[in-house]
């Protein structure tokens, strides 16, 4: 089969789940073409990009990262494209129909690499916004094939609040099949008007070979290591983890809290740790490679993700790092928001507490610190849970079966 992946940026290191699907499809003998709005340039690139020659499969506008040169070249490319397909270019700029996707020029960016029409067995749009772009390209005869639109979180919790609750009406009318990363998100899509008989849950899975299991035991020496992996943005609730750690430290001074990830709240969170007098045990490690993250997972004893419902409406679609943490055998403490209760087995692989409640977070962490005999049991349960429900090989086999049904004209919701 020939599969088109429609994404925003490529290769985006943070979206390894898209890379895992692409390489899984290639491993199963199918062809892949990647349509992206932009090329992401970074010093850290997923090793699969070179191993699979993915840049040779990429169709994306080659534009400068600097705003001035980028807009200048975009104007030249758009003008040249308008000479060939004026209706498409003008429609891509129609704010009255496409709202922020047109005003931000994202539809225009998406159109440029697709001006040469192509036919696929399946078009897979990753995130609702990119699925709108895929539907736009198909409407204008630039892509041909059945469309699978895949939602992950922000696209159903935040984007409709800014773009309007009718933003997906056309996509829901013309898309062939719809997937969401959790049952929580399936319901959000239904609330926005998605056809009930054409949406199903397709969760992000993990490659278990990249997340080796380690049975947790109390350290013979050194501090108890608590780990968080998250972007430093409001929805992740890192403020509440730092406040909880300040409370935990009064009970158990020999702890260390490592935070992997970066984002706009780093400075304010650093100040909070200093104000709470825990900056000596709270370490901000920034973004890390997968190899470094694997080592940090292995060194940790407990994992915490205190996600909240953010002021812009953002919620966790599933909490993918919790899947990774359970895969490696870490007892987890998380919050009862979004799709997280579908991911963590409360009382069996970890604990769930109310959001924005540092006292409840601290109480569960203290309970785990005081009962290290629970760590191995919780860790084994988490690993078994991930093996059963989030195994990448099983998930990619299922994905290919879904593609095959779509290609054969059977866009029914899979079991």
- CATH homologous group name of the largest domain: Glycogen Phosphorylase B
Helical content (DSSP H or I, runs of 4+): 40-55%
Number of distinct helices: 20
Specify the structural class: alpha/beta
Shape: globular
The CATH class of the largest domain: Alpha Beta
Question: Could you explain the architecture of this structure?
Answer:
This protein is of the alpha/beta class and 415 residues long. The chain has two domains: 220 residues, Rossmann fold (3-Layer(aba) Sandwich); 182 residues, Rossmann fold, CATH 3.40.50. The protein contains 20 helices and 15 strands. A seven-stranded parallel beta sheet has the order 3-2-1-5-7-8-9, with helices on both faces. Strand 13, helix 16 and strand 14 form a beta-alpha-beta unit. The longest helix is centred in the N-terminal third of the chain and has 18 residues. The mean pLDDT is 92.
